[in-house]
Amino acid sequence: MDLRLQQPVAIIQRLCKPETNVTTANVNGMLDDLLTCLNNAQNQTDGLHTLTTICYELTSINALKLLDNEHIMQHELFITLGRTLEMLLTKATFIPMTKHDEQCFYETSNLIANLCLYTKKPATCSCNDAHDELNLNYEQAINEILYATIFLTNSFLNKLARILSDDLSANDYEPYHVKYKVIGRLLCLCTELNNINHSVLIDPVVQCLRSDYYLHAYKTIDLRQPIINPKQRFFIYQCPRFIRLRSNERSDEVSNSLCDFVLGYSQQIFEQHLPIALESEAIATRTNKKKKIFKSKPGAKLQALGWHIELLNHIALTPTSRIHFITDTHQTMIDQMINIIRTKSLIASVHENDELFHSDVHLMSSAITLLYNLTFENKIFSLLKEKNLGEFCTKLHTAKQRTIQFASQTLSILLNQDNIDAIKYPLIMAQNYLFYIENTLHDRSLAYNGVKLDGALTYLEVMAQNDLIKNEIGHDDDGISLLVKCALDQHLDFETIQCPAWRIIEAVSFGDEITCKKMSDDNKLMDYIKYLSNVDDSTLGPTANRIRWKVEDENKFISDKIKKELTPATLTNSYDGNNSNNHQISFNYNWDLPSSKTSDMFDLFISYHHSDKDICSQIYGRLTSSNFYRISFDREHVHEILPNAMAEAIEKSSIVLICFSSKYQQSYACRMAAEYADKRQRSIIPMNLDELYCPTGWLNNIVASKQCINVMKSNFNSSYANLIQQIDNIKKQINIK
To answer: Per-residue pLDDT averaged across 658-673, rounded?
Structure first.
């Protein structure tokens, strides 16, 4: 070691000993000595060598702890360090680097990356002045990106962007060249940090991914490679990861820009690497030093293949790019993903392992997530249904890894058109959906592990028709609050996030008493619902009214009706003085039921879904034309908007005709009316408007024990005659009573 470096290096090593008491004055003095060494360098080469040694010594864990102090961060040494790295970035872009340049380039970038990442999260420090001992049990908050503010300036980012666009996307270097190591490290640093200008780097990184070097990196992966080299890592992992995590403000534009290139590369990549992934056992047989034969697994190949599918998945998140997956040129890619999730060895592996860094788990997770996201394109959804993908997914329902569970269960239900009320693992599914909603909300891109928030809400709206899922969401500590955040956060898209969240909250309001109690106790939710109920909001107002009805108003409304129906109870208390334990209490109840002759009373209330309005209007017309029946028929769907009006109409009706279909069962406005009629013990006549539909779940609970009228389009008169007979029979029974 150079004699001039021995003293400062010795100081660094002494200060880094855990048992040493260190003050900010000690650290600042050390940094002053190091800066003096740099300033006394005889020439640039000597200075770079000195700085290389300093950076190497300061990168130790204990040294980084000492430097995590807001006063120390502003030392001039770090200004010099940042300027030197910028100079080396410029030099690396335009002219060949010397050995000393490359060494300094590597070590300065390493120290800067560690300093920025170490203080990325809020840190604290209890020192008050230069003479206080540094306390590593932090108490007072420090700016979370102070080192990033010093180093990752606009000037630095512009120089990093230039070397990406002008050099690495255009020029080829040997696999272990220092440029791939350093630029890859700096790109990872920029990916990890939040409050920097990522937009400067997006186009240069896209250039790298559109270059031939991306495909070439895959072509050069050798079967015998245990891990990928720096060049391969830069192109197939670090660049795609930056795009996936940091291009959200331009995600559609970037995906469209990459789509043709990445999809075009996919055929060659899958032809080369996919057969390896589909092998049932180990891939290559080799002999070790003891001449013993053993099998090695395709770690690097499998890992790289998973990264490419992750990039495809990112592109598939954009609707305008997603449609390209079904073109004749690229449709085989869907079959290749299906082949991955059908591979027996991979299925067995994901039931034993759950870590995403495990190559089998990563590959399976990436493939099934891609298929999950492709289902949002209607043509691809139909294609996957034809290919029986839902059946293949059933073997993955019990996989250990959460993404595989989530995607496989969702695909099975959607593609098989399973009975929602017969979901096999409703509690696990509810927890998985809440997990993804929570994690996507925490990410600026509103995506997590390839799952977007709007997509998760879209499919949860379907799954929430299952009552067990409703209750699990309601019982979860954060279930209601997560949905409320989605519904009320004005920064989130109204159509794709807020509205679905409101509809899911409405679904959950049909849960059990515990669920309704938790919703009622959520002041933020109920205050906003009351606000919506009092303003003219045609979009959310009706939904808010129905939620309020289920959570608060329905029970109170029924209670008030019962009180009005009951005459004041007469209490007779007979007391036998000879037996003080003998108490006899009798109540006389007189039911004050409205007369059926009253003008505002109805014989029949017709409950129907608006999609079935034509046939229900036909039924209503024939009933009223006979002049024998008074019918309550909500032509304008007022009852969907005002639950109180629905309840009042049912209260005035002797009979409720439930005209149901699959749409009826899926409608919470229809469920609200049917369940209210059932609670109030009205005579119910079920009428099935769809010959092929069989009611399940809540609807089946109401109609199963009753004589159902099946409407046959070919013989409507017969169905109508059956209806008249049932109405008359019920009226006779009411008159007898």
So the answer is: 94
Tell me which H or E stretch contains 654. strand 653-660
Q: How far apart are CA 506 and CA 523, in angstroms?
A: 16
CA distances, 156 to each of 94, 151, 204, 733 (Å): 16, 7, 14, 87
Angle, helix 44-58 to helix 99-118, in steps of 10 degrees: 30
**Per-residue confidence (pLDDT) for residue 139, from 0 to 100:** 34
Instruction: Give pLDDT, residue 25.
Output: 83
Please give the domain boundaries of the chain with CATH numbers for all domains.
250-280+297-418 (no CATH), 422-555 (1.25.10), 602-736 (3.40.50.10140)
The CA distances from residue 640 to 16, 595, 607, 683, in Å, are 71, 27, 11, 21
Which residues have a Cβ under 8 Å from the Cβ of 97 and sit 6 or more positions away?
88, 91, 105, 178
pLDDT > 90 in the chain, percent: 63
Task: Kindly state the tokens that stand for 52.
Answer: 């290389």
φ and ψ at residue 142, rounded to 5 degrees = -115, 150
Q: How far is residue 689 from each of residues 610, 698, 707, measured CA to CA in Å?
A: 13, 17, 14
Beta bridge partners of 23: 133
For the question of whether the overall pTM of this predicted structure is more than 0.85, the answer is no
Contacts of 414 (CB under 8 A, 6+ apart): 375, 381, 390, 459, 462
Note the pLDDT tens digit of each residue in 396-439: 999 999 999 999 999 999 998 767 888 888 999 999 999 999 99
Tell me if 84 sits within 8 A of 106, measured CB to CB.
no
